[in-house]
Model the fold of this input.
Amino acid sequence: MRHMTHDHITHNMSRKIKAPAILLTFLYVATLVASAQTQTPYIPPDPDPAKIDTAHFTVGYEDGHVRVLHLSLPPGEVTPMFEQMEHVVAVVRPSRLILTAENGVIRELATATGQAIHGGREKLSIRNIGNVTFDAVITEFKDGAPASAKKFPVVPEPRVPVITNGAQPATSVRPTPPSIPPLNPPPVPAETKQTPATAPTTPTVHDTISGPGIHSIEPTKAPAPAKAIAALEKPEVLAAAIPGAKAVRINNSMVTFYEQGNGATVVFVHGALEDLRVWAPQLDSFSPQYHAVTYSMRYHYPNPPAGEKNEDYTYAQNADDLASFLRDLNAGAVHLIGQGYGANVALLVAMQHPELVKSLVLMEPALDALLPETRAEAAKYSRSEILGIVKRAFGKQKMPEHGLQVYYDWYSGSGAWDALTLEQQQHLRDNGSALAAMSRMPESDKFTCADGAKIKVPVLALTGERSSPNMHVINEQIAACIPGAEKAVVPGASHAMEEENATFFEKRVLEFLQRH
Done:
């Protein structure tokens, strides 16, 4: 059996990197050990990084027993999902990485020069979130890895697949139709404008809404001045951000809402990283028959942002806000339609305040307790890890953009953030403050089948055809646990079903409301 020499390892790679001698020695020894093992049938990686991502991966050497790859990943770039054989990664130039496993588990990894990491056969994608190019030499063992090698601790293999809180990469953020007036930044009184040290310096980004002169609120790079925040606490200032909107103080926080049409009241509850604008198309579709209302939860655009220490963004607090808002509407029992995080909030209101709810439409709430035990634990663990990354990004690391990217890719699919336009990313940045507040109080909904048996209002549970298996299980369980609940699958859609198949979604929901 031919052993790999030092020259073999560095062949065709010397022009690309100058690896420290210790790394090359390590690779040589690792190869000798691997070559001494009993050979097992070789199954090529699928997809092979050397074939699908030649921009980042280069083959330096290959024989019947090993393959040596050079990975060079510039800052901000991400690899596609690829498969690796048993392997050892030797770090040449370190950086900070995000590793996304095929099962949806995401880990953050800080590397160091000379670090050697062993990994089993796995599928993953890698994003460089550092400020320098990440360089590494990867030795893949076709015969299997040395039995004494230390397992790679970054992306563990769970007992069951971990399903992300979402499904497929989103291709767009829901645009607001012309019927909602232009959304302009709320005016700040003259006495609050003398704040050059903290004023945003980047140009305004136009939102994805029809009409001229439409803008999103600029994300600030420093905490907003106290006087400016105080100005936003005034209902008349908030309402001016969206002509025709109104603002009220609910539970010591400001809530902005928009209403359209007459008839029985339908209230739309948005999800995480969204705000009242997301339901604009549905206002046009529902308002000919109903009094359609959409509102922004606390800390969502255009409401005042959360403080750096706010710990009041929870399911319970948002449900209490919604219940108080419904009482202020003075519309009696209403039809509630909630998506994602908003569906959890709407469900909690229906449980605690049934007198306020006429019917309930649930669009993929994260009800992990309805999953089989092992899946529930995996989902809870995944959510906790993601929110931990988000909390650090918005906190000590001062990297809010990174926090937004990680969270959005988690529930929309790897690479989803990069698929968005700058305008669409800005829409999500507008709600970054709410995400930061949520990360400070991570929680999993404890709704059980026994709780479902107590719900007496009519319920329609919806999931997207392309949504994750976990979401399909939860949808089935909602229908099974809540007496008389209906269920439906929105064809060709994932989490953003009201956008991806608006025709089916609106027809099914309107038909449900008309019967209740």
Notes: Residues 373-394 form the longest helix (22 residues). The radius of gyration is 26 Å. The first strand starts at residue 57 and ends at 62.
